[in-house]
């Protein structure tokens, strides 16, 4: 398919060609054959095994009757109607690689363009496969996994350039976004996400050479505005977590950068957490939408940042339009709307002073990577949020060793408030952070992405394996189906021959697995793909 097809993805709900179900990453579909009234008749039409025990986090893509899915081990093409496997190509990655992945052996999906399937590998290579046969067309080394780099995110094709980010901020890598020629795999450019002394922002690293191991990984996929020709890519935590060995704002860690896909040039940036010492990766989805603000339509970028604030920015220039907490926050009292900077509380200061402090939200964030959805008709963001805190203390920073975890903090503890929910499913107003509805999750939080549809439905998954549909107006669960393992992935909806389908991957994995509690022992491993449709009368 072409660049035009990719740009028009959200206007053609029958296929799902991009990560996020459109370059805007709204995870919204105009399909409404499955709706609030008939969702009770949703039944599985097929399931396919992934032959993988390490967890499923991917968002499937669907093009003209063929579905493409991935995990750390495999790339698979499936006949979307019958569920029969068309081809399966093993990912050849060094078995020692899991040593340098912080949070699970995982992969979030593929990109499609011009007859090819593109994906990153755990050992930091980019691969192009033939869409028809699954045969490898090219393979390019992105970086050296032995230095702590890995790839778990899905690539992005924007304006003819194949872009990828990398993981590794907890291992002291120097983050970057790369641009490749999709036809050959030749590198076109590299944009480092920590600024060198001679670059703009270089003066925000006041310790010599700290930018070389400064983190700011780029482990989730950016969104793209083809009209402005800007890609919005979020960056991870600064490294090490302990800020004493780097000081300064540490640009462009914990930020969004707006870049030209042809060159990697940074046109504007906004830093959510200056001088991050909280592991507040800002990699999560940058959702593009139009909001009416003060009676005027504005083209905005919305993000539910890990640091607990919901942000709205003007996506042409990065101007801050709103920033409000969407969960419990104690490290900053508010965001100064003039400077765009958080105003830190005494609690953050005591942590900076070397004392142990209990920080809300936790190092996992008010929301981890599990993506939010945005319904342009309701103007609301739908998200699985977390309600947990963390405590730790700054420690002496050990000398940096490539490929080793490098944090410079000690006594890291994660806690839940007694008798309080572990998380919520919430419909959040992006301009205020206030939830229109909020469903407490008392047993364990959800770690899956949301999918919103014009049928007034929200789909998501639970770690205990249920795939569920909520009434988008109230948050009430109105349908559920127990899949074969825990769900930690991104659901999609698509249609063929006039019939709507919903697909999700099931397979217990990811970081969230650690907080499921005693019931985790009764959640079996094992990946599979599940597809649902309305039962025929
Ligand atoms: O800094 C990084 O490069 C990086 C990478 C990843 C990753 O690649 O999965 C995660 C994180 N950080 C992280 O902080 C985090 O909480 C996290 C959760 C998960 C997951 O798959 O559940 N990945 C990651
Ligand atoms: Ca991180």
Structure characterization notes:
GO terms for molecular function: alcohol dehydrogenase (cytochrome c) activity; calcium ion binding. Its cofactor is pyrroloquinoline quinone; Ca(2+). Pfam families: PQQ. Belongs to the bacterial PQQ dehydrogenase family. This is Alcohol dehydrogenase (Cytochrome c). It is a single chain. The protein has 537 residues and is mainly β. It has a single domain, classed as Quinoprotein alcohol dehydrogenase-like superfamily (Methanol Dehydrogenase, Chain A). Helix content is 2%, strand content 37%. The chain contains two helices and 38 strands. It has a five-stranded mixed sheet with strand order 1-32-33-34-35, with no helix packed on it. A four-stranded antiparallel sheet has the order 2-38-37-36, with no helix packed on it. Strand 20 and strand 21 form a beta hairpin. The longest helix is centred in the middle third of the chain and has 7 residues. The chain is globular and about 65 Å long. The protein starts with a helix and ends with a strand. The model has no long low-confidence stretch (mean pLDDT 97). Bound molecules: pyrroloquinoline quinone and calcium ion. Calcium ion binds next to loops.
